[in-house]
Amino acid sequence: MAVLSRIVEADWILEGFDDDDAPILHRDAALLIDAGRVAAILPRDAARRAAPAATTLGGRGRMVIPGLINAHHHVGATPLQLGSPDHPLELWFASRLGLRDVDLRLDTLYSAFEMIASGVTTVQHLHSRAPGDAEQVVAAGRTVLGAYRDIGMRASYSMALRDQNRLVYMDDDAFVAGLPEALRAPTKAYLARFTLPLAEQRAIYDALRAAVAGERRLAVQLAPANLHWLSDTALELAAELSARDDAGMHMHVVETPYQKVYARRRTGGTAVAHLDRFGLLSPRLTIGHATWLTGSDIERCADAGVHVCHNCSSNLRLKSGTAPVNRFLARGIPVALGIDEAGINDDRDMLQEMRLALRIHREPGIDAPHPSPAQILRMATERGAATTPFGTRIGRLSPGCEADIVLFDWDAVTFPYQNADVPPVDVLVQRAKSSSVRSVLVAGEEIYRDGRFLRVDRDATMAEIAARFAQPLSAAETERRQLGRDIFPHVRAFYDGWLAELGDDPFYRGSGRF
Question: Which CATH architecture has domain 68-391?
Answer without folding.
Answer: Alpha-Beta Barrel (3.20)
